[in-house]
Write a structure and sequence with these properties.
The complex is a heterodimer. By secondary structure, chain A is of the alpha/beta class. Chain A is built from eleven helices and 15 strands. In chain B, strand 1 and strand 2 form a beta hairpin. The chains are: A alpha/beta, B alpha+beta.
Amino acid sequence: MATRIQFENNCEIGVFSKLTNAYCLVAIGGSENFYSVFESELTDVIPVVKTSIGGTRIIGRLCVGNKNGLLLPHTTTDQELQHLRNCLPDQVVVQRIDERLSALGNCIACNDHVALTHPDLDKATEELIADVLGVEVFRQTIAGNILVGSYCAFSNRGGLVHPHTSIEDLDELSTLLQVPLVAGTVNRGSEVIAAGMTVNDWTAFCGSDTTATELSVIESVFKLRESQPAAIVDDMRKSLIDSYV
Amino acid sequence: MRLEKCWFCSSTVYPGHGIQFVRNDAKVFRFCRSKCHKNFKMKRNPRKVKWTKAYRSLHGKDMTQDSTFEFERKRNRPERYDRNVTEQTLKAIPLITKIRHERQKKHITNRLADVL
């Protein structure tokens, strides 16, 4: 079920939060509104952790993780690292990596099985990703853009990519990732998908600017719609999605 | 807050001291004082500058390999907080420092004894 929220009047949710199947990281905001939305959806299911990375609030774009692990940039302070280790469950491996491209959330996109990375990532980092996150790593670009982590958001059940991705690219990515992909937008036409929304296997959160059309595309590609009259769902699907890989 | 090492002379840089230089390839250079910073700008190699730790380690003047140095290694994979472990670590830190200083002194006296 997709929810619309704002972080201090800003619709770029994916910048200030990181949602996975095993935990959720949230930035420390001025008011508790942002945190309480996540809390109301996720409290008993997974831990929701308030944190900063390197003293900043843009945690969604700096770190990358899945249910197996969490990778943090070298700018993370020792105290933040310890805080995350204490708050997250033991099966999640928390690791800080030394990488020139420190905004890991922009460079790496992953789910529980596959990861797409920036083509210029270090070999050592790639091995660490495969080891800590337990994923198969592919160096790819999306719509000619090297920042794969920002221009696509995918979970174990589906994915949303940059709207200008060609059909061939979409097919190729879909076979690599083994999930259905759709090229779409979020937050009233923003192309930076991962900055505008955050998703896991059963929920999604989008910026409040997201239109109803975009929201229904998101709900259908990530398979978040639970029980609705089949006819309505089918009708909407036909009118909204023209290529379903 | 983290106590870093000066890139040039390897002494500890305490908060409020020194300069940090970030190069275009994103490598960070920390200096404890302007002496080290100016030497760096002159493109001097610390391994050739007699008073730096890099020179002294390279030429065997100071102790390099020891188990006490392993305690100060930077760790990227933290462990869950355990009060007992923290208490014991805090108790052990001054002991380890004392042992390290003793061993360093020993290393130098041995070296000077060998020369004579």
